[in-house]
Amino acid sequence: MQLLVFTLVFVGPGYSDARASGDTSPPAFASLFGGPFDLIDQDGQPKSDKDFRGKFMLIYFGYVNCPALCPGNLQQMAAALEELGVEGKKIQPIFISIDEARDTPAKVKKFVAEFGPEFIGLTGGSDKVRAAAKAFKVMRRKVVLPDQASKDDYLVHHATFTYLVGREGRFLTFFPNNTDGKEMARRIRKYL
User: Fold this and answer.
1) For residue 146, what is the domain's CATH number?
2) Does any domain span residue 122?
3) For the chain, what is the domain count?
4) Domain around 163
5) In a 10 Å sphere around its CB, with 0-12 CB exposed, 13-18 middle and 19+ buried, how is residue 12 labelled?
C-alpha cells in the first residue's frame, strides 16, 4: 500500500515583501483568508462586506446545483445557529455562489430559503465572484462530464470550508466540510 501525503501551503499578501526584507517567518494565519467583497444579494441589491459590520459572518461558498456538499454544509450552519439560540442572532449566515453563470439572484433566494429566513445569498458578475473567492482562497473548477446532454449541465468542484468572520470583517477561523452543527456552535461561542 502506498501512502500519499499532500501539504497545502497558503501564502498571503505581503509574504514575498517580508521575505525580501529578511523576515522568514510565515504571515499570521488570520491574514491569509478573507477580504472585501462586492456582490448582489438574492433580491438583486448590492451587498458588500461593509454591510455586515457589527455582526459576525458565517460564510459558505458553493452553488445551487451542488448535489450534496453545499446543502449538507448549509444544514450544519443552520444547526449551529439553532444550537447557539439567542447568541446566534449575532451571526449573519451567508451563502456566496461560485457558479455565477447559472445562479441568478432568484435561484439563490429560493435555495437559501430552505435553510432559514436569516440566510442571505450572494452572487454577481464573474469578476466580482472571482475576487471574493480569491480573497477567501476558495478553489473552484468547472467540470463537464462527457455524458452530459448540455454545456450548462456541469458540476463545480470547490473548496468546502465554512468561514467565520468577526464584527470588523476580519477572518477568525474556518470549519472543514461537514463539521457537525453542535461542534461548530461550540467553537463559535469562543469568539462571541
Assistant:
1) 3.40.30.10
2) yes
3) 1
4) 38-189
5) middle
Q: From CA 99, how far away is CA 184, in angstroms rounded?
A: 26
CB 124 within 8 A of CB 103: no
Burial class (CB in 10 A: 0-12, 13-18, 19+), 126: exposed
pLDDT per residue as tens digits for the range 67-125:
889 999 999 999 999 999 999 999 999 999 999 999 999 999 999 999 999 999 999 99
For β-strands 91-97 and 56-62, DSSP reports them as parallel
**Model pLDDT for residues 158-190, shown as the tens digit of each residue:** 889 999 999 999 999 999 999 999 999 999 999
Cα–Cα distance between 107 and 184 in angstroms, integer?
27
Distance CA(169)–CA(175), nearest Å, equals 17
Angle of CA points 52, 54, 60, to nearest 5°: 45
Give the burial class of 72: count Cβ atoms within 10 A of its Cβ; 0-12 exposed, 13-18 middle, 19 or more buried. Answer: middle
